[in-house]
Amino acid sequence: MSTSHSHHHHRHEDDESKDEVLARYMAQHGLKSTRQRSLIIDTFFAVGGHLSVEELWNKVREQDSKVSVATVYRTMKLLNECGLAHARNFGDGQTRYEAAAGRDHHDHLICTRCGTIVEFENDRIEAMQDAVARKHGFKVTSHKMELYGLCRDCQRASGAPTTAA
């Protein structure tokens, strides 16, 4: 029997949907998909932004009061391990997670002189990108924007004669 074309008919859509990535990771690690786990994951991606486990837990409990904070914690660890979420530490001692899947997304300002990278988010830019894509009949799966120039310090430094390289 020919199975040659059955499983790659929508491979090219966007390499792997997060569901596929997750399903594969969980299968490899002998984990079962539970309703609670799916709810936590869906909530996390729906809310977007930088969420701490507590914040996410509060959101999830609005829909299912039986979910424990430990389950949320383990689920986020799972998303972090399979690369769907990134753990970030913002100095307040709280670990926050952000979705890796292109939606909540930082663009970058890059200094060509000292190499400093500044992350920024601008909803209007994101919205305009979506609008432009729609106008051209495109479905954007990912993008990357980098703005190059001189940071504040280097502008100051280059205001003076740049003898020290």
Q: Can you give keywords for this protein?
A:
165 residues; alpha+beta; 3-stranded mixed sheet; 6 strands; globular; disordered N terminus
Provide an overview of this structure.
- The chain has 165 residues and is of the alpha+beta class.
- Helices cover 42% and strands 15% of the residues.
- It contains six helices and six strands.
- The chain has helices at residues 18-28, 35-47, 53-63, 69-81, 123-135, 152-159, and strands spanning 51-52, 85-89, 95-99, 107-111, 117-120, 146-149.
- α2 crosses α3.
How would the blueprint of this fold be written?
Layout lengths: L17 H11 L6 H13 L3 E2 H11 L5 H13 L3 E5 L5 E5 L7 E5 L5 E4 L2 H13 L10 E4 L2 H8 L6
Parallel strand pairs: 4-6
Antiparallel strand pairs: 1-3, 2-3, 4-5
Helix pairs in contact: 2-3, 2-4, 3-4
Q: pLDDT below 50 for ≥5 consecutive residues: which ranges?
A: 2-14
Give the overall silhouette: globular
Number of strands: 6
- SSE arrangement, N to C: HHEHHEEEEHEH
Instruction: Classify the helix fraction into a percent range.
Output: 40-55%
- Major sheet strand order: 1-3-2
Any idea what the radius of gyration is? 21 Å
Summarize model confidence as the mean pLDDT: 80
Biggest sheet record:
3 strands, antiparallel
Number of helices: 6
- The amount of beta strand, in percent, is 15-25%
Backbone structural class: alpha+beta
How far apart are the first and last residues' alpha carbons, in Å? 68 Å
